[in-house]
Design brief:
The chain is an alpha+beta fold. The protein contains five helices and eleven strands, in the order αββααβββαβαβββββ. α1 crosses α4. The structure holds coenzyme A.
């Protein structure tokens, strides 16, 4: 599996791209490849479309909206962006931050435990609504994990709004673990900090999740070093299942 992830990552990072089949829509013939400056207009268009839909649904806090200059700066500063294409159409994207120095800004609201230059930070993941259900976030995350291995980084980290189940379910399916929960200083949105140590074995099982029937109740808490990879809901409460 590791060899496969690294092989696919090299292919994507070198620009060749890899073919993906849809899971929910097996008829789709998608290609995952690294994004470049020439893709900036499509990157902004996809972000703005997805964000407008989130805002209309009352979930505007799920994504940080970036300007074209911010994406361009990310691409210039060692960062990698991944995109999934249906023919010529960009249908999913994510940023993989590779902070250059130990004291660089890692861009997370919650504090990861490793110095910034030991991290790959997965951010700004978006899938066009018509293409969701195909595990495209998970597939991009696998490449991020391969990137961490290739570049000698110790962890893949990401943050997800607690209410954004599709986001953190995708992270848990990647073998990442929830290691902290707190409010974002900027907007007080409850957030999970989620990470996968490169050296970790992949999670053996991923639990099934139920939608909460009651409003979210989140405890402000830092979790143990092993983190949690399972979350359940009962009577409106969230429970976290210890890893392995
Ligand atoms: C988050 C996002 C990128 C995930 O897209 P995706 O890769 O298509 O994810 P999928 O739809 O394949 O879902 C992944 C898993 O979450 C599960 N899931 C999704 N929504 C769920 C819900 N409301 N309740 C329970 N499980 C849910 C899916 O069932 C799937 O798990 P399974 O295959 O084991 O059933 C996409 O929903 C998105 O673009 N959202 C808007 C932008 C956003 O929130 N970005 C995240 C920023 S951190």
């Amino acid at each position: 599996m590791n060899q496969h992830v690294n092989g696919a990552t090299e292919q994507v990072v070198l620009g060749d791209g890899v073919d993906l089949r849809g899971i929910k829509q097996p008829e789709l013939n998608l290609k995952l490849r690294r994004l470049r400056d020439r893709d900036l207009p499509a990157i902004c268009a996809l972000q703005n479309k997805v964000n407008a839909e989130l805002v209309a649904d009352g979930h505007g806090a799920y994504v940080v909206v970036r300007r074209e200059e911010s994406f361009a700066a990310h691409l210039e500063a060692l960062g990698v962006m991944l995109g999934v294409f249906d023919g010529e159409r960009l249908v999913a994207q994510s940023l993989m931050g590779l902070p250059p120095r130990a004291d660089s800004d890692h861009g997370c609201d919650l504090q990861p435990e490793e110095p910034a230059d030991k991290l790959v930070v997965m951010k700004g993941v978006l899938v066009d609504a018509a293409y969701r259900g195909n595990h495209l976030m998970q597939r991009m995350g696998e490449v991020g994990l391969g990137l961490a291995r290739l570049r000698g980084r110790h962890q893949l980290v990401a943050e997800a709004a607690v209410g954004n189940i599709a986001s953190w379910c995708s992270m848990l399916a990647l073998g990442m673990r929830i290691v902290a929960c707190d409010e974002a200083p900027s907007d007080h949105e409850p957030l999970y900090l989620v990470r996968r140590k490169v050296a970790d074995r992949p999670a053996q099982t991923v639990q099934r999740y139920l939608n909460p029937t009651q409003p979210w109740r989140v405890q402000r808490k830092t979790f143990g070093t092993d983190g949690y990879h399972g979350v359940w809901y009962r009577g409106g409460q969230i429970g976290l299942a210890a890893a392995d």
